[in-house]
Design brief:
It is built from one helix and eleven strands. With 225 residues, the protein is mainly beta.
Length: 225
């Protein structure tokens, strides 16, 4: 596992070292929240798998008004898929734990609402699967040890340095190709590529972040003598 998390850590250290000369402009933060996830291509639908999403971040504001910023995060992120057997007597659970390194660019309006897009590298550190519907041969197809995904996010400032984030993340590379067999007809066989599909709800705190500008109260009209 040490080797698996080495690359993401090195990426973070390189990023911080590269901007060391502008260290006074780097803001630190930390996020804690949950993932609602599914794996497209597993024959089940719905964001039913719940996992944690947390880790530190570094933010570098830029531009004349500092409305733009670049962020780098180092996250522990639980993804996967879950389906509870019902009338079809099928039960399925896929657990995928990643060390994610999102790099994003943000625009913040009036220091109260922000939107961002970017890319995320994810290193798979844990994989566990239980199934009834997927054929045993499908598990012989190794899971891709890393993920590359696109990320979009909208954040709203709650109070001082606290922000509420809604983030969407989708894999650009398939996790693997899986073979399925129709349990009612063994001759009906098909393959599907699988992709992580993630919605994250998070609470983020940014240290020493400038507060929104206060509205100036209008001056009272001077009384005429």
């Amino acid at each position: 596992m040490k080797k698996k998390i080495l690359l993401p850590v090195l990426v973070v250290l390189f990023f911080l070292s590269f901007h060391n000369a502008r260290a006074q402009h780097i803001l630190g933060g930390i996020s804690l929240g949950m993932n609602l996830t599914q794996v497209d291509g597993d024959q089940f639908y719905g964001f039913n798998k719940i996992g944690v999403n947390f880790g530190p971040m570094a933010i570098i504001p830029f531009g004349k008004t500092k409305s733009w910023s670049v962020s780098l995060e180092l996250l522990y992120s639980q993804k996967g898929s879950y389906h509870r057997g019902g009338t079809d007597s099928t039960s399925y659970r896929l657990t995928l734990d990643y060390i994610d390194v999102p790099v994003m660019i943000h625009f913040t309006d009036k220091r109260v609402i922000s939107a961002g897009v970017g890319m995320c590298y994810g290193q798979l550190i844990n994989h566990k699967e239980s199934y009834l519907y997927i054929t045993p041969d499908s598990l012989k197809t190794p899971m891709r040890p890393y993920d590359l995904s696109v990320v979009g996010e909208v954040s709203v400032r709650l109070w001082h340095g606290f922000w509420f984030d809604v983030r969407y993340q989708y894999s650009m590379l398939s996790l693997r190709s899986v073979t399925f067999i129709d349990p009612t007809n063994n001759k009906n066989i098909w393959e599907r590529n699988q992709y992580n599909n993630v919605v994250s709800l998070r609470l983020t705190y940014v240290f020493k972040q400038p507060l929104p500008d206060k509205k100036k109260k209008p001056k009272d009209d001077e009384q005429e003598e």
